[in-house]
């Protein structure tokens, strides 16, 4: 899973990005992970749900048991 994440990070964010400062790149990576990857990007391993949707679904099942 980690290899898949880093492949996505490099493909979707790093490759083709203009040369920017280290601080700007840190901010870009933070925003990619916290805003795009965790909240909006759909993941095939999670039945094409976002991480938030998947976690919310699991919370519902925890309350049932």
TrEMBL record:
Domain of life: Bacteria
Domain Integrase catalytic positions: 3-58
Record lineage: Bacteria, Pseudomonadati, Bacteroidota, Flavobacteriia, Flavobacteriales
InterPro entries associated with the record: Integrase_cat-core, RNaseH-like_sf, Transposase_IS3/IS150/IS904
Originating species: Flavobacterium ardleyense
Stored SUPFAM superfamilies: Ribonuclease H-like
Stored PANTHER family: TRANSPOSASE INSF FOR INSERTION SEQUENCE IS3B-RELATED, TRANSPOSASE INSO FOR INSERTION SEQUENCE ELEMENT IS911B-RELATED
UniProt-recorded name of the protein: IS3 family transposase
């Amino acid at each position: 899973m980690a290899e898949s994440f880093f492949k996505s990070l490099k493909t979707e964010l790093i490759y083709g990005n203009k040369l920017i400062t280290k601080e700007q790149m840190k901010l870009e990576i933070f925003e990619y992970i916290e805003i795009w990857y965790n909240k909006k990007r759909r993941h095939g391993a999670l039945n094409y749900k976002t991480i938030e949707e998947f976690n919310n679904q699991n919370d519902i099942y925890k309350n049932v048991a």
